[in-house]
Design brief:
CATH class of the largest domain: Alpha Beta
Shape: globular
Order of helices and strands: EEEHEEHEHHHEHEHEE
Structural class: alpha/beta
Strand order of the largest sheet: 6-7-8-3-9-10
Number of helices: 7
CATH architecture of the largest domain: 3-Layer(aba) Sandwich
Largest sheet: 6 strands, mixed
Strand content: 25-35%
Distance between the termini: 25 Å
Radius of gyration: 17 Å
CATH superfamily of the largest domain: P-loop containing nucleotide triphosphate hydrolases
Bound molecules: adenosine-5'-diphosphate
Number of strands: 10
CATH topology of the largest domain: Rossmann fold
Length: 224
Amino acid sequence: MVRFDQVSKRYGAAGKDALNGVNFELQRGELAFLTGHSGAGKSTLLKLMMMMERPTRGQIHIDDQLINTLKPSQVPYHRRKVGVVFQNHQLLFDRSVYDNVALPLQIAGYSPVDCARRVRAALDSVGLLQYEQRNPIELSGGEQQRVGIARAVVNKPALLLADEPTGNLDPELSAEIMDLFVRFQQVGVTVLIATHDIALIERMGKRRLILDHGRMLGDTHVVA
Ligand code: ADP
């Protein structure tokens, strides 16, 4: 589903490499964690996968497509295959939970009926159907993050990326959020989660990719 071949990324001509010769593969339906010190290149790797940045060298295949060479007009189609969850969830506080989750579908031009069906399915999948008319500001941090996840999966993406999705949550809520990602994996979604939370990863027993100063150091399968 995902393949990086000798991928490097340098920001600006004079900068150092944020990523340096990175190779890895994720199989369809696999869930892996991406770890490494602050500045190791985790966010950069995720941004390359969403085409928010382009690699300086190397090749990135996603869903059997070489994405480095996509034309700007093809980027929106690529992004529809990729759901993204951010640490600060980037919700709009002047709109309802429903409208926040519906946003990607409205941009993609879905009819209101299709939109309603998918938004409710996405909210149901994160256990928040009863909150659709609430404003996200009334919800707890964990619930807000669930809205962010519902918005990321409402397009039914084949690939789900998360950048520190539990960064602001306590351990119990973090574990619940990680369980949600596992549930998406169980229905065939490929999931990559960047996180600092080593204790949580060790409990979950999933594959772990380790970045260090832009290099892929290791690739381990943690046994829970
Ligand atoms: P992480 O997510 O692991 O903390 P990042 O991918 O954010 O790491 O950063 C990797 C390196 O790239 C760091 O040295 C960071 O300063 C640099 N970097 C990240 N984004 C930019 C940018 N937009 N411009 C210049 N340098 C950047």
